[in-house]
Amino acid sequence: MSIHDYLPTNQRLARQLLGQRLRAVLRLHDHELEDDPRVEYGIVLLLGSTGEEWLIDKEEGKGNLIFIDNPAQAMSESPWYRGFSRRTPIAEPSSDHPLRFLVTEPITGVEVIGRESEDDELPDCFAMCGLRLTTSSGSQACFGGYLRGPVVASELAFLSPDEVAPDLCFTPL
């Protein structure tokens, strides 16, 4: 499989989030964070309550998320992922944390976030630039890249639905 044929794998791995209760949502980084961890640069590691792991990065060439199929192997063998030695929680269970629901409630909905491609020769650009997760209380978080408007940001951000651009497309998995 080519690196550019990753969207079906992404969808399969993202679908595994349905029904999961996450025990941690972590920003992996190699530098001191200057901003809120939910909008910083760096890859994301989701840890399921029964041992599942999802390592999520951004494929810059086409602006899509990329799910790393074997997170433990990638983090031990890949010089790129091994370099992200720091872990900062993006969501915490404290009652005042805005993303608390991600680590206290099961995920009941997963939607692919896409946006219009600006390049007709690359039709799958931005086809899966993010995911919107809904939990049992109806709370939602959008995460991915290029979610806030013009295609300029390189972050892998966790945003509330009212922080994302209005022209995004949402497709349930």
Question: Which properties best describe this structure?
Answer:
173 residues; mainly beta; 5-stranded antiparallel sheet; 10 strands
Describe it.
- The chain is mainly β.
- It contains 3 helices and 10 strands.
- It has helices at 7-15, 71-77, 79-82; strands at 22-29, 43-48, 53-59, 64-68, 86-91, 107-114, 130-135, 140-144, 157-159, 169-172.
- The strands form 2 sheets. It has a 5-stranded antiparallel β-sheet with strand order 4-3-2-1-5. A 5-stranded antiparallel β-sheet has the order 9-8-7-6-10, with helices on one face.
- The protein is globular and about 45 Å long.
- The two termini are 22 Å apart.
- The mean pLDDT is 88.
List the quaternary state of the chains.
single chain
Instruction: Catalogue the unreliable spans.
Output: none
Q: What would you call the structural class?
A: mainly beta
CA radius of gyration is 15 Å
Largest sheet: 5 strands, antiparallel
Numbering strands along the chain, what is their spatial order in the largest sheet?
Answer: 4-3-2-1-5
Cα(first) to Cα(last) distance is: 22 Å
What general outline do the C-alpha atoms trace? globular
If you average the pLDDT, what whole number results?
88
Query: Element order, helices and strands?
Result: HEEEEHHEEEEEE
How many DSSP E strands? 10
Q: Fraction of residues in helices?
A: 10-25%
Number of helices: 3
Please report which band the strand proportion falls in: under 5%, 5-15%, 15-25%, 25-35%, 35-45% or over 45%: 25-35%
